[in-house]
């Protein structure tokens, strides 16, 4: 199976590969830097989901792959509190679409104020932790769960949801 991944982020790429391995599916993977066509910092479930879907579609078309996968991290407001939100999309060459969402938790007020001021979560997390490249490592989810859930493991769960839907669909059609 030929899988096109709509990112060059190593954490997301490894999450996709690991999920396919866990599902015991043989696949060849190619990753592409493709646009999400949403804000640099998506601020809603809808925008974050659309970013994942756009990445999946662009990747699938670039490779003319059997499957394209897109993953997108964002934030959303719930009752005045800013939460993480994460989405994935899997599109097939035939045009079938599967989506899934992942973990979300409240973010500190300091991060929320930075998002309100127009900053992106990645640089805010770097500043918050006094480190560089959090988005390419454990991510905000790792920082705020004390690494019990990392960005990779969270995205693996999203991809497993996508793969499960996809394999079920293939088995009944």
Descriptive notes:
The structure is a single chain. By secondary structure, this protein is α/β, with parallel strands linked by helices. It has one domain: Maf protein (Alpha-Beta Complex), CATH 3.90.950.10. It is built from 6 helices and 5 strands, in the order βαβαβββαααα. It has a 5-stranded mixed beta sheet. The mean pLDDT is 96. Its cofactor is Mg(2+); Mn(2+). Belongs to the YjjX NTPase family.
Principal-axes shape call = globular
How many structural domains in the coordinates? 1
Strand content: 15-25%
Q: Total number of helical segments? A: 6
CATH class (first level) name = Alpha Beta
Strand line-up of the largest beta sheet: 2-1-3-4-5
Largest sheet: 5 strands, mixed
Q: What CATH architecture do you see?
A: Alpha-Beta Complex
Question: Which class do the helix and strand fractions yield?
Answer: alpha/beta
H and E string: EHEHEEEHHHH
Low-confidence stretches: none
**The CATH topology, please?**
Maf protein
What is the count of β-strands?
5
N/C terminus separation = 17 Å
Radius of gyration: 16 Å
What is the typical, i.e. mean, pLDDT?
A: 96
Which percent bin holds the helix content? Answer: 40-55%
């Amino acid at each position: 199976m030929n899988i096109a991944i709509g990112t060059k982020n190593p954490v997301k790429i490894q999450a996709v590969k690991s999920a396919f391995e866990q599902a015991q599916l043989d696949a060849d993977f190619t990753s592409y830097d493709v646009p999400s066509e949403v804000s640099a910092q998506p601020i809603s479930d809808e925008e974050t989901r659309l970013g994942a879907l756009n990445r999946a579609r662009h990747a699938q078309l670039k490779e003319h792959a059997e499957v394209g996968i897109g993953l997108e991290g964002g934030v959303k407001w719930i009752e005045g509190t800013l939460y993480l939100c994460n989405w994935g999309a899997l599109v097939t060459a035939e045009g079938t679409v599967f989506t899934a969402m992942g973990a979300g938790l409240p973010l500190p007020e300091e991060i929320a104020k930075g998002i309100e001021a127009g900053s992106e979560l990645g640089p805010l997390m770097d500043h918050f932790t006094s480190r560089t490249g959090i988005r390419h490592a454990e991510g905000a989810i790792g920082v705020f769960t004390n690494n019990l859930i990392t960005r990779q493991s969270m995205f693996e769960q999203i991809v497993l949801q996508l793969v499960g839907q996809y394999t079920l669909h293939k088995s009944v059609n």
